[in-house]
Design goal:
heterodimer, A: 228 residues, alpha/beta, Rossmann fold, Arc Repressor Mutant, subunit A, B: 340 residues, 10 helices, 7 strands
């Protein structure tokens, strides 16, 4: 697996290289946006780690440019409190984000999540069922059970759960979820989404106030967390 | 408009003086006109005061100084008196009008002095509170790098964990300072959205590891649905309150988050079984840089700006944050948000 790291800070490039190579990835790095774009086109990586705040060609521009010709997974590095930056990056086509400072473990987990999505082309993963802890989703019979008890989900709740499971461990923005489950015309109905998520949470989480799986990313969207 | 009123005032005073024959001595009339100048300065400002001063001068000259009904002045002493009047009138008018400007610059000076004091306090706290984790990091890492007897794996691990924990602590401190300065600058506008209370509390709990979560008990009134808040800000607030509760209460005691509502508001309360708050604490606890009475400086880290930030954020979201003691011992912090 080839990773392209685009970050203007040499210490960060060094630390990431060490952490990623140790896990078995081969690492290319670029110190500017332009260099990153050149490397990406000459030697296409399997995934890109991109810092948003770089002088010159910033992360947003790189993201936008990359998405013109490739679907390579992109994870952006941002800072706390800049929700608008993250939303913008996700809207420009980034797959996920990490808040600096982050631990390498977190980075690796997010990389695994976005790479898995990239390797299967359709939304239907072809698996007959999904199981995590007490939750089992039987795709063939459209049945959801929690600790053996069948629970009733509305059609939209079921579709939403299926979508979350498919994109597990990846952040999904409100508009992405709305678009995939309700359709592109419904991307501004955040309140509808919230209500459905709250219902889903109360049905499938053991302790809805302490959701283990359905994580909220404030102002951005949701993440279905699964330990893998 | 103001000039018109001032002119009318002068005319009024003139007719009163003429009517009652008060202008008998040159001394009387000027004092009455001085009164008009003062009033004009108080209510209408410097320009009008000068206008009234000159108008009065002319009027007094015309009506009350011999020869009357002319602008000439017969007696040199009366001429001097008249000029003294004008001089006094102008000066009085200007001083009275400037009174407002003086008051304002005094309060500006006070505000600047205040900001300066805060900056000094902040700098010294930053210096201390940042140096602590940095010292631990430096010590750990230099040990790891040093030559000598090889460290056993346990020690090695502990040193690395220390570096990680202290880095997290620094990150937290930086976050607090950024929040406070954003609040101060009025730059952190809340983005209000309808948020389910359970979602808010879920996000708060996410910030604590499994071990700490065992100490946190949640109770949400089932009637509660959404509250109109900036969820990023409110998560910060509740998280801060819970962190404090965990820190300032025995490690085997529970911290409760209770969400409920009454007729007017939704309340979220954080309760602990620590030693509670003293009267002085309750009074000052939301002030910036206030650290609790009786807490040894070194034992509990933190900049003491957390609660000031919390209150600022709650108020920016339209609510209130209050502190008190609970029955049976311990403190309770209550956030009240108005129902939409």
């Amino acid at each position: 697996m080839k990773v392209l790291v685009i970050d203007d800070e040499p210490q960060i490039r060094r630390a990431l290289r060490a952490g990623l190579e140790r896990t078995g990835y081969s690492v290319q790095s670029a110190s500017t946006g332009e260099e990153g774009l050149t490397l990406a086109s000459e030697r296409p990586p399997d995934i890109v780690i991109l810092d948003l705040a770089m002088p010159g060609t910033d992360g947003f521009a790189v993201c936008e440019e990359l998405r013109r010709w490739t679907n390579i997974p992109i994870i952006v590095l941002s800072v706390r409190d800049k929700e608008d930056d993250k939303i913008r990056a996700l809207d420009l086509g980034a797959d996920d984000y990490l808040i600096k400072p982050f631990g390498v473990g977190e980075l690796l987990a997010r990389m695994r999540a976005v790479l898995r999505r990239a390797s299967t082309n359709e939304e239907d993963s072809g698996e007959p069922a999904f199981v995590v802890d007490d939750l089992k989703v039987d795709y063939i019979n459209r049945q959801v059970t929690v600790a053996g008890q069948e629970i009733h989900l509305t059609p939209k709740e079921y579709d939403l759960l299926k979508c979350l499971i498919y994109y597990r461990n990846r952040v999904m923005t409100h508009s992405q979820l709305l678009s995939k489950v309700w359709g592109p015309d419904h991307v501004y109905e955040a309140h509808t989404l919230r209500v459905h998520m709250a219902n889903l949470r109360s049905k499938i989480e053991k302790d809805p106030a302490r959701p283990k799986h359905i994580q909220t990313e404030p102002r951005i969207g949701y993440r279905f967390k699964v330990d893998e | 408009m103001q000039y018109l009123c001032a002119t009318l005032a002068v005319a009024l005073v003139t007719s009163v003086v003429l009517q009652f024959g008060l202008g008998a001595t040159v001394a009387n009339a000027p004092i009455l006109y001085l009164l008009v100048v003062t009033v004009a300065a108080l209510f209408a400002g410097r320009g009008v005061a000068i206008w009234v001063s000159f108008a009065s001068f002319l009027v007094i000259n015309w009506f009350f100084v011999t020869p009357r009904y002319t602008l000439t002045v017969q007696s040199p002493t009366e001429w001097i008196t008249l000029c003294m009047f004008l001089f006094t009138a102008v000066i009085t008018g200007q001083l009275v009008a400037l009174r407002d400007a003086l008051i304002q610059s005094r309060s500006e000076a006070a505000a600047l002095a205040d900001a300066d004091r805060l900056k000094t306090a902040l700098l010294s706290m930053v210096s201390h509170d940042f140096r602590s984790p940095l010292t631990a990091i430096k010590a750990s890492v230099s040990t790891l790098l040093s030559e000598g007897k090889p460290l056993d794996t346990e020690t090695h691990k502990v040193l690395c964990q220390t570096i990680e924990q202290e880095t997290d602590r620094l990150n937290l401190l930086i976050g607090n300072i950024l929040d406070l300065s954003r609040l101060e600058a009025g730059a952190w506008q809340p983005k209000i959205e309808a948020t389910p209370v359970s979602e808010l509390i879920g996000m708060v709990l996410d910030n604590f590891n499994a071990e700490l979560n065992k100490r946190i008990v949640v109770q949400i009134d089932s009637q509660l649905t959404d509250i109109a808040i900036d969820s990023v800000q409110m998560v910060q607030v509740v998280k801060n309150l819970v962190e404090n509760a965990l820190k300032y209460s025995p490690s085997d005691s529970l911290v409760e988050i209770v969400a409920g509502r009454d007729d007017e508001s939704t309340t979220i309360a954080v309760l602990d079984r620590g030693s509670g708050l003293s009267g002085e604490d309750i009074e000052h606890i939301f002030e910036r840089f206030y650290r609790g009475v009786g807490l040894p400086e070194s034992s509990l880290p933190g900049l003491g700006i957390g609660l000031a930030v919390c209150r600022g954020l709650v108020e920016a979201n339209g609510g209130t944050l209050a502190a008190g003691n609970r029955q049976g011992g311990g403190a309770v912090f209550t956030i009240s948000l108005p129902l939409r």
